[in-house]
Amino acid sequence: ILFAFSSLHHLYKKLDPVIPEEELPGVSILKPLTGVDINLKSNLETFFTQKYPKYELLFSVQDDNDPAILVVKSLIDSYPKVDAKLFIGLKVVGPNGKINNMVRSYEAAKYDNIVISDTSIKMTPSTLYEMVHCLKPHVGLVLQMPYCATRKGFGAIYQQVYFGTMQARNCLSANAVNINCSTGMSSLLRRDVLDKAGGLAEFGKYLAEDFFIAEAIRSQGYKVVLSTTPALQNSGNSSITDFHSRLIRYVVDSHSMTLFDVSPLGFFMGHFLVWFLSDYILFRIVENGPLPFSKFEFLVAWLMRELLSPYIILSAHLQNHVVWRNQKYKLHWGGKVVVPVTSSLDAVAVS
To answer: Any idea which residues carry the catalytic annotation?
Structure first.
């Protein structure tokens, strides 16, 4: 009930009043990149076509051998009127590779409002405006709830059903009762507030930097809110195996921050019909239209997701380390992360 009311009240809400163009603040968008997939260019291009008067794009890669460099340079050449820069090389401030990849672009950002956006995210032309509209004076961080763009293949359907039901339910319910639900895929924050917490580099010691950034902002009295539209993940990889590895990493991150490592393992066996219908309704709300695939495909993907929950959680509880972006990390209680000296990659590979 809580997530249903929250979704109906919050998602795709009409933005009133309209902010005059001359009053819109400048925004620096940080895009850390690693490698390419078939959707990278089309995803990045959506950031060059934002209907927003004043913003800059700051791309960053780890080294000059990254194939994403050619994609970024071609887009910069195609959109000469867009303020865009590319940073090559890491500034190591901790074990978190994503933070190391972003620190230089963060330090070079010229605007006080910062968007951090993952590689696979695509935007609609109005996304940046919608996020800024939610950044009221009492708000320090605006999150886009994770969702997926519609893609071909059952693996893509499975991921979309997961993010449109289970993930959406958790995120909307947590946000409604002021629980930190930050995922970091696409977020807008106030730079001055983050700098008071030590700046972006301060969070390089955590693997779940998004959670701790949100906590640091909340501790200063600012609210963390959801944008009115979800973040559209549009990865070229729809492998179910890779997606499960990614979910395991999320759960490992979560229970490393829990004093008593207790996670729910049971199915919601009772009230099956109510459970399914509530998720179906929520998915339709998040999708903002009819199903992009058949009801049968939705049912199969939903059943698959619910039935595999114990496997995902059990797999995560059997390990205290993950492999992320070709680097092995060991997690300690409190969410802090270290890089083991061993070269044995016996962890679950993640995307």
So the answer is: 210
